[in-house]
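Example 4.3 (complexes with small molecules)
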Amino acid sequence: MSYPTINYIGNKEKIVSWIISLIPKDVTSIFDVFCGGCSVGYAAKQKGFTVYTNDILTINYYIGKALIENESISLGKDDVDRIFHGEPFEGFMFENYANKFYFPEECMQLDLYRKNILQFENEYKRALAFILMRRAMIRKMPYSRFTIRWDKICQLRDEQYSYEHYKRPRSYHNKSFRFHFEDNMDEYNSSIFSNKKHNKAYNLDVFDAIQTVDADVIYLDPPYAGTMNDYFGFYGLLDSYINGRQTVPFENNFMDRKTIVEQFDKLFSSLSKFKYWMLSYNSRSKPAKDELLSIISKYASSVEVYEMPYAYKVTGKEKKNKDVEYLFIARSKSYGK
Ligand SMILES: C[S@@+](CC[C@H](N)C(=O)[O-])C[C@H]1O[C@@H](n2cnc3c(N)ncnc32)[C@H](O)[C@@H]1O
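Answer. The structure with S-adenosylmethionine bound is encoded below.
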């Protein structure tokens, strides 16, 4: 089984085996509370842990539902025919996003596909269909995120312009939703498996999620304050599509350098029931390593920090090993030394 192509901004795919190798030995369950594209939850499922995922975005809840909680349900050719059957119509996407993110006829198609997906009775089929539709929507969107202005989108979807300016025609942006959906379907279907544990996905704000779920370790991969971290902007449109209403910005967003120390303090003060806390962060973000160590130490009986040089990507250019990725591992005071 391998993790399918999700392409989530800020994902941990490149360092996930390092993260998993540092999970304390007496752990059997893990809570990936800012799961995003679920790369860490998926690797933990492969290793046989009981996995809980959570994210404030509904689309990421569906990724957890389809790939982590789901043990066996996949999509077949008949399901695809159902999803793409019928006449496109002027619905929510057409009314709100025509000529903002997609052309009017594409919005009408999305309105039809959503209506058809919602008719699946099986919740895993619905989740899988929505995450494949996500993949298709993202393949059609220049830079794979919904923070690009419409005039720029049109420019980059103009294959001749894109070829002349960037030497890339980007023709995949102009392929149909159905093309991309079917193109990715086998890969997604074959990533589904059972690890014989009862894994579960949640869609809550982090502070509600930590009240709801029990696990041996909580893995925290929040947005990194001070870096490219506007997840509401990047992917909020996908939630608007799924839910048929406009997504509102998150309250606890872990984005703002001014409030981030306060937010971390509040977060670590609320984790006592989890025996271990694992936090991913990096050297470019605020707060810096020492400040984070002192916040965590207030509530932990011990804390260690591991470091890994990390290559990250900015619009295609690879910046090598400039940054260090940290993994803080702490033990809750309530479990003693
Ligand atoms: C760095 S990403 C996680 C990436 C993930 N580990 C992966 O490998 O794909 C941070 C995630 O935190 C989520 N998030 C932001 N604020 C949140 C909140 N208040 N509660 C729950 N999730 C939140 C974002 O939607 C985003 O998916």
